[in-house]
């Protein structure tokens, strides 16, 4: 009846009978999240931090085994930081900067990411997904202990739903049988094959790639260790895959990823002896233990809209990308970051429901950028036609001799957050000479300020960041309090470079998700009011 | 932003043409394809200007 579909790494939300199950009528909850994967848990933290009662239903009793995601990018970690769980991730994660690209076993070139200094978080870390999820569940538990109205129910599978005008009714299956739950708002975070999407009959369209990849996470025994670098082979001559990736994770675990083609016998390939045969051909004589392995195929798809009345879709349920470029969980975290404050304002009656449409507008914009990037990486790694392979190989053969060809080598592009250029919540960009990277719509760029990190001072509410400019300490915009963060460029060169550019002073209006809503060189109360109203869908 | 030069611009056209063919002499089809692809990439990078490259791609795609 309730069969587990995967093994658990951490049984962190075992089934407990809920009082709801004994009530004659379905109990109504303000927000129900379906799916306790990374995106569902992050959503619960966001809403929980705002004091909004939130219930998570998951059909398992904890976090799945097997790493899946290993690369967590800067913006994702910054979002996690705002949720109070970024630091353990950073602490456990592996930071790497050196990458090497091989073609047919010759090293073509190597690159150093040379990260910009003055950020709390690096460009990304490698971390097994179960750790990532565990730190978030730990944080959710801590919030609960502090009295936040959040709850997770394990082994609660949603089997059907009925969408009404102002609420949703769910049929939930448990080991004790079925019961019903009602939700004012429902957030579907039920993964790439989203049963909720199917139940509601929404389309999920895009491209399926005719290829499959075999992943093996291995733990090295003995002294031999590979360096903390990312190695990518195109057409390795060991012949064990059309491309191969080797990447380090914490706990001396390495991820090996073989591209093995479309017409494979999955069952045969998944046999340990066959995986070992590939690994041995690739690694030579080394001793290792297999931690986890899996075969995956992938697609780049998204829904036409991420909001359907009272139902939202977030994470893999809303969009799916190929793993090249690590944009899955990373972009899902940005969905949550975007939806959380908007839903919070609407539930508190401070913004009209219309604001919620901007969630779909902004995150579809983000999803399209991710899909574009990951499709391009895929086309390079697995060329689809004879001529695309000819060009791919031409790039690789030139990259060793001529540096111009190196930027064309695409073995996955770093996941960077999108800038909501030209979208409806944006206010004026009226800072003459202001840097492009912190323009309206952009996520804020971190910087050291007065011995702390800028991003730690921002987020979770509307704020005015003033740099050498005057402004009142707080401003009430029809129930939305805008508080000031007063900074000076003096002694903060990174702040000046990242936020002033050519300007001498600046006033930034920041959204709760740390995106820039508007910017000016001086404070003007009417302009700020207008911009807050625009950013909250009131005008 | 530039404009693609479609006027004659190569001083000794017969010499150039002969060298282009010489680069492919004795090569298999696959080797020749690879040379052409590398050449396109090298020249494209040399041009750099996205507008010029777009005009060149459009012209090339007309048959
Ligand atoms: C090989 C591989 C490598 C990857 N590498 C990266 C990477 O490096 N970086 C990155 O950012 N991303 C990566 N990803 C993507 C990343 O794993 C996903 O984007 C991420 O797990 C999505 O999280 P989610 O919460 O949306 O969905 P999921 O993690 O799929 O969680 C969905 C949850 O919903 C539950 N559920 C499903 N149906 C129901 C139901 N009916 N009722 C109740 N609960 C239900 C499921 O049990 C599950 O717990 C990779 C993916 C793969 C396959």
Automatic annotation (TrEMBL), chain A:
Keywords: Oxidoreductase. It comes from the Bacteria. InterPro entries: FAD-bd, FAD/NAD-bd_sf, PheA/TfdB_FAD_monoxygenase. Residues 30-363 form the FAD-binding domain. PANTHER family: 3-(3-HYDROXY-PHENYL)PROPIONATE/3-HYDROXYCINNAMIC ACID HYDROXYLASE, FAD-BINDING MONOOXYGENASE. This is FAD-dependent oxidoreductase.
UniProtKB/TrEMBL annotation, chain B:
It comes from the Bacteria. Pfam families: DUF2783. This is DUF2783 domain-containing protein. It comes from Albidovulum marisflavi.
